């Protein structure tokens, strides 16, 4: 009797778990989709009708840590949702997959009710694609193959994958791989590589594409077609102000090398260098500490900045040391010509106000009737800056960042819309003169008012007592 009760309870529980999926299939009992291409062809509205699905094909990628489960048959690849109580699947397994359709968050997906592993299968032939096709999102969930130039490589501890960056037409996408075909990750940078993997789309809550990543399922998914130079720093040195200049037969896709003196650095984020003629913003993930005054060689990929070129995916090495660069003493008009972009400058200004935006503190300043901002990254104590009252006359020193605006024109008369000053530390705001009169702080006003109220209360009590004594004596 007890066993029968337990069996009944088990059947009820099983029914409760299966009922939603059975209900999905019951919505459209007469239609069964048998290819991934049929599922992909559905609109989001039709996929939400939960048509029954029965497919036969191969697992092309599976990793629960990346929320990535992909299947492909002879017609197309497709994403399938999680199914509990099954052993982890492996890329290359031949499987039978049954379930219902779902709208997914970007393209239609499969909500499985059962997955049966038949055995070791054969990976489908990848679709040869261009990088332009990849970034369009049309190849979502497909096993693809492409070749490209490696821009950067890093290891992500959280996922356990190597992340290999490619850039095409200003679009950056990342390849995820467990293994590399070289001993050192840095040896891949600037090489030409063939990649075979599943195209996985990154999307927002409005089902809109914002990025692409490629998931490499097996060790043979990466092949070096053209090795990187043995020593990347063997490149010839270019002047900073020669970057992105016209050159007959030149290309803007190659790695370049420049030298300069460090004016400012943020470990793992950026360094600013300059020479006699120009300054340069270098984006880098390198965590080596660069000190102001260090002479460095920097290799990277030139790209368009806000006004002057920048170096992306930069790597640097110290080759000497010396004094910190001397700031160019300039006025507003000189700055707005743009020639001091990304260089260390100084100019006099008046403090109008300050505001905290995120982790950075911004100063609103005025010089020659022109208003601009200076900002200090929240990595140092700002108490020194907080003590500077509005109306103070200061000398501001920092890295100039030009804001070009929309009204560029050729010729000497053009001026930038505005600029910002990146402060290196609180010492970059030197107080020259404080206002003779300043607004009384709110806390002081409160104390004064409270004191006046207290004095008034005491005087009132004294008056009442005097009147009371006078009344009793009379």
CATH topology of the largest domain: OB fold (Dihydrolipoamide Acetyltransferase, E2P)
Q: Give the end-to-end Cα distance, rounded to a whole number of Å.
A: 104 Å
Give the number of DSSP strands: 26
- CATH architecture assignment name of the largest domain: Beta Barrel
Question: What is the radius of gyration?
Answer: 33 Å
Number of separate structural domains: 4
Helix % is 10-25%
Q: Structural class, from helix and strand content? A: alpha+beta
Major β-sheet profile: 6 strands, mixed
CA-based shape: elongated
Q: How many helices?
A: 7
Low-confidence segments, ≥5 residues, pLDDT <50?
1-26, 466-474
Features:
single chain, 474 residues, alpha+beta, OB fold (Dihydrolipoamide Acetyltransferase, E2P), 6-stranded mixed β-sheet, 26 strands, disordered C terminus
Detail the topology: elements first, then pairings.
Layout: H1 2-27, E1 32-33, H2 36-40, H3 44-47, E2 52-63, E3 68-72, E4 77-79, E5 93-102, E6 109-120, E7 127-128, H4 131-136, E8 143-156, E9 161-168, E10 171-177, E11 192-203, E12 209-215, E13 222-226, E14 237-238, E15 256-266, E16 270-274, E17 279-283, E18 294-303, E19 310-321, E20 328-329, H5 332-336, E21 344-357, E22 360-367, E23 370-376, H6 383-386, E24 393-403, E25 418-422, E26 429-433, H7 442-473
What features would you describe in this structure?
- With about 475 residues, the protein is α+β, with helices and mostly antiparallel strands.
- It has four domains: about 25-120, OB fold (Dihydrolipoamide Acetyltransferase, E2P), CATH 2.40.50; about 125-225, OB fold (Dihydrolipoamide Acetyltransferase, E2P) (Beta Barrel), CATH 2.40.50.140; about 230-320, Bacterial OB-fold (OB fold (Dihydrolipoamide Acetyltransferase, E2P)), CATH 2.40.50.200; about 330-435, Beta Barrel (OB fold (Dihydrolipoamide Acetyltransferase, E2P)).
- Helices cover about 15% and strands about 40% of the residues.
- It has helices at about 1-25, 35-40, 45, 130-135, 330-335, 385, 440-474, and strands at about 30-35, 50-65, 70, 75-80, 95-100, 110-120, 125-130, 145-155, 160-170, 170-175, 190-205, 210-215, 220-225, 235-240, 255-265, 270-275, 280-285, 295-305, 310-320, 330, 345-355, 360-365, 370-375, 395-405, 420, 430-435.
- Strands 1, 2, 3, 4, 5 and 6 form a six-stranded mixed sheet that branches. Strands 8-9-10-12-11 form a five-stranded mixed barrel.
- The longest helix has about 30 residues, at about 440-474.
- It is elongated.
- The N and C termini lie far apart (about 105 Å).
- Residues about 1-25 and about 465-474 have low confidence and may be disordered.
């Amino acid at each position: 009797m007890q066993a029968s009760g337990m069996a009944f309870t088990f059947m009820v529980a099983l029914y409760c778990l299966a009922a939603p999926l059975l209900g999905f299939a019951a919505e459209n009992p007469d239609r069964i989709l048998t290819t991934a291409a049929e599922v992909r062809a559905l609109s989001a509205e039709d996929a939400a009708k939960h048509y029954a699905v029965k497919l036969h094909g191969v697992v092309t990628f599976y990793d629960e840590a990346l929320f990535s489960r992909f299947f492909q048959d002879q017609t197309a690849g497709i994403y399938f949702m999680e199914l509990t109580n099954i052993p982890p699947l492996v890329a290359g397994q031949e499987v039978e997959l049954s379930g219902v359709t779902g709208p997914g968050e970007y393209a239609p997906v499969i909500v499985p009710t059962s997955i049966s592993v038949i055995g070791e299968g054969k990976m489908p032939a990848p679709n040869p694609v261009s990088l332009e096709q990849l970034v369009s999102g049309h190849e979502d969930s497909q096993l693809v193959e492409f070749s490209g130039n490696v821009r950067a490589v890093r290891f992500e501890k959280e996922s356990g994958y190597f992340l290999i960056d490619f850039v095409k037409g200003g679009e950056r996408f990342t390849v995820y791989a467990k293994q590399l075909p070289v001993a050192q990750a840095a040896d891949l940078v600037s090489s030409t590589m063939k990649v075979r993997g599943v195209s996985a789309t990154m999307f927002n809550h409005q089902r809109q594409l914002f990025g692409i990543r490629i998931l490499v399922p097996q060790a043979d998914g990466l092949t070096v077609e053209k090795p990187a130079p043995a020593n990347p720093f063997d490149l010839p040195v270019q002047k900073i102000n020669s970057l992105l200049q016209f050159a007959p037969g030149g290309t803007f896709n190659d790695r370049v090398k420049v030298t300069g003196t460090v004016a400012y650095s943020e470990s793992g984020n950026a360094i600013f260098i300059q020479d006699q003629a120009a300054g340069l913003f270098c984006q880098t993930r390198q965590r080596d500490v660069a000190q102001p005054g260090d002479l460095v060689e920097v290799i990277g990929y030139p790209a368009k900045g806000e006004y002057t070129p920048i170096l992306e995916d930069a790597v640097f090495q110290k080759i000497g040391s010396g004094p910190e660069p001397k700031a160019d003493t300039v006025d507003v008009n000189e700055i707005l010509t743009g020639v001091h972009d990304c260089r260390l400058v100084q100019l006099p200004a008046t403090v109008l106000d300050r505001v905290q935006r995120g982790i950075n503190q911004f100063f609103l300043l005025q010089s020659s009737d022109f208003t601009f901002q200076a900002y200090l990254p929240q990595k140092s104590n700002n108490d020194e800056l907080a003590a500077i009252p509005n109306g103070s006359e200061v000398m501001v020193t920092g890295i100039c960042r030009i804001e070009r605006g929309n009204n560029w024109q050729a010729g000497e008369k053009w001026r930038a819309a505005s600029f910002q000053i990146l402060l290196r530390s609180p010492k970059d705001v030197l107080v020259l003169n404080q206002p003779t009169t300043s607004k009384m702080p709110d806390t002081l006003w409160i104390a004064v008012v409270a004191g006046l109220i207290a004095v008034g209360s005491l005087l009132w009590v004294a008056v009442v007592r005097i009147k009371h004594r006078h009344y009793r004596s009379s």
